[in-house]
Amino acid sequence: MLIVTKEHIPNYEVQKVLGQVFGVTVRSRGLAGNVTASLRTLIGGEIKEYTKMLEDARRHAIDRMVENATALGANAIVMMRFDSGEIGQTMSEIVAYGTAVVVREQA
User: Fold this and answer.
1) Does residue 34 lie within any of the structural domains?
2) What would the pLDDT profile of 52-105 be if each residue is shown by its tens digit?
3) Strand partners, 86
4) How many CB atoms lie under 10 A from the CB of residue 65?
5) Rounded distance, CA 68 to CA 23, Å?
6) pLDDT of residue 88
7) Is 42 part of a structural domain of the chain?
8) pLDDT digits (tens, 9 = 90+) for 15-50
9) What is the number of other CB atoms lying within 10 angstroms of the CB of residue 23?
10) How far is residue 107's CA from residue 98's CA, in Å, rounded to a whole number?
11) What is the pLDDT of residue 33?
12) Number of domains present in the structure of the chain
């Protein structure tokens, strides 16, 4: 599956637009992760526990978006974007979305 953040894929022609696809995941750190992260905020620097959680969440959101695109018969996703938000004070929502298309390599 080709995934690009642009409208066009170089050297490919869009044969069919299948529509919007998305993948969503909601994550929460466990109690131990929240305590460790809270302690890190006191001394500053990167909070690696949250960085890892958000990296994993983005990967899962992309995987779910690809599953949706594959179910529609797509072989590519164009204009892919991420959106995120918080649910309460302990959960993060990550959404990956884009337009599912069928592309063909140009000769």
Assistant:
1) no
2) 888 999 999 999 999 999 999 999 999 999 999 888 777 889 999 999 999 999
3) 92
4) 24
5) 8
6) 76
7) no
8) 999 999 999 999 886 655 556 666 666 677 777 777
9) 21
10) 26
11) 58
12) 1
**C-alpha span between 71 and 94 (Å, rounded):** 21
> What does the alpha-carbon distance between residue 94 and residue 97 come to, in Å, rounded to a whole number?
10
Q: CATH code at 86?
A: 3.30.110.70
DSSP string, the chain: -EE-SSSS-TTEEEEEEEEEEEEEEEEE--HHHHHHHHHHHHH-S--HHHHHHHHHHHHHHHHHHHHHHHHHT-SEEEEEEEEEEEETTTEEEEEEEEEEEEEEE--
In terms of residues, how long is the chain?
107
> Distance from CA of residue 33 to its chain's centroid?
22
Domain hosting 14: range is 2-28+54-105
